[in-house]
Description:
CATH architecture of the largest domain: 2-Layer Sandwich
Number of helices: 20
Number of domains: 3
Helix content: 25-40%
CATH superfamily of the largest domain: DNA ligase/mRNA capping enzyme
Oligomer: single chain
Number of strands: 20
Radius of gyration: 26 Å
Shape: globular
CATH class of the largest domain: Alpha Beta
Amino acid sequence: MKRFAALVQALDETTKTNAKVSALATYFMTAPDRDKLWTIALLSHRRPRRTIKTSLMREWAAELAEVPLWLFEESYHVVGDLAETIALVLPKPSRESDTSLADWLALIQSWREKEDVVKKEEICHAWTSLNHRERFVFNKLITGGFRLGVSQKLMTRALAKATEIDESILAHRLMGDWSPQSTTFEELILSENPADALSKPYPFYLAYALDASLESLDPPGDWQAERKWDGIRGQVIKRAGSLFIWSRGEELMTDRFPELHAMAETLPDGVVVDGELLPYKEGRPMTFQHLQTRIGRKKVTKTILEKVPVVLVAYDLLEYGGADIRAKPLSERRSLLEDIVKKANVPSLLISELVPFGNWGVLTQERENSREHASEGIMLKRKDSPYLVGRKRGAWWKWKIDPLVIDAVMIYAQQGHGRRANLFTDYTFAVWSGDQLVPFAKAYSGLTDAEFQEITTFVRRNTLDRFGPVRSVKPHLVFEIAFEGIQASKRHKSGVALRFPRMSRWRKDKHPKEANTLEDLNAILALYG
C-alpha cells in the first residue's frame, strides 16, 4: 500500500504526461505482480463494488476521532471529499502496516459477507495503522471514488515502457471481461495467446469538431456527408465463424446485443465493420436515454429487447477478406461496405445513408434539419481519406447542431468537490408554472472560476434554508441552460429529463420573471422529444 499511495501522490502532483508515464512505469517495474494487476484494474475502470455504506464510515470515523457527528458532517461539507475528510480528522496512527494493496482490497471485498460490527472493527483497525496519505487512498478504494487524471491509454503506455511489450498488444490484452480475481498478471499481460488476434478490434478513428469555414475546405465534391448519430460507437468483427462486438471504450459487448447475433450467419469471414450501436424502432432512431436502459445490462430480457431494439448503423469497413484495408480510400471502403450490408440482409445491420449535397449551402440546411432525423448533426469525411488512429484533424469533421436552450432560475446550490470544495458550483434550476417554480434540471459546468466565485458569494448571502449540503437560495439568478436532447420522464416533477444540461451563460440581463415556463419546456418536448 505504501508504494501505491506514493504513486497516487506522484500522479496528483503533476499535470505533465511524461512525468505521469514515468511514475507509472517505475511502479510497474517494482511493485508485486498482484499489486500491479489491481492497479491496472483500478486505472481501467474495473473498480471493486462498494461494501460499506458511506454513512457508516462517517459515523465510525467521527467516533474514532472523538468528535460529534454534526462537526464531522460540517467538516465534510467544507472539505468536499469524504476520503480526505476521514484522513484528516482521524488521530495519528498508533502503528505501521506493510499490508499490500492486493491484500487490502481482498479485505475490502470480504466485507460484503460480514456483519456491520465486524466491518467496523476491521476498518477502524486499518485506519489506526495507516498514515494520512495511505488512509486517503484506502478510503478511496472503499468508496470507489478514484480520479487520478490518468487515462487507460496513458496507463497502457507506461505498462508498455515497463514490460517492453508493444502498446497495441497490451491495449488488446486489457480489453474484455476480466478481473484481478479471475486472472494473474502473468496470464493477462505477459503470456502470448494465439487466440488474441481472433477477436482483436482496430483502434478507432475520431473526428474533431468543425472549427473552420466550409469555404476553406476543398470543393464539396471531395467530401462525403452522413448523419451524426447519438449512440455507442462500436466495431462488429466476424472471424473464423465467430462474431465479436466491441465498444469504443474497449469493452467486449457481444452478449449485450443478442439482436445483432444474426450477422454471424450472413456476414462473410474476415470483416470488421465500424459503426454506431443505435436504439432503433419502427424505422427511426430512438433517444440515447432509451439506449441507457441497455448499456449497464449484461443480461437482456425479452421485454427490454422488444422495447429498445438495437441496430448497427455501419459507416466504415476496416477489414475485408481477412486483410487490413484501412489504408484504402474511404470511397473504396464505402463501396465494399455497401455490398456487404446488402448481401448480409439482416434487419439489425443498416448502412449509414449519405446526405447528398451539391454545395455548402445545401449541406448547411441539412445540418439545421438534423433533429427531424433524430440526428446530432453532420459528419464530413474526405472521400480519399484512409482510416487513421485516434483523433486527427483535416480529413474527418463532426459538425453538430447548436444545442437547445432555455432560461431558468437557480433555486438550490451545493458545494463542489476537489479544488471546488469551497465553492458552490452544483445548481438546481427551475422554470415557471404559473406563480410556482418547478425544478427540472441540475448543472455544474459551463461557467468560469470567477463566475463560480461570484455565485458562491451570492449563495452565502441569500440562503433561505439548508438541507444537509444543499442550500435553498432566493430565486434571483437566471441562467441559460443548454442541452442536447429532451424526453418525457415520470421520475421528475417537471415531467421532462434533459440530456447533457449545462450552463451556457449567466443571464444577468434578465429578471427572474423573464425565465421560461414549463409550457415552453413541453413545447420543446413536443418538437424534439
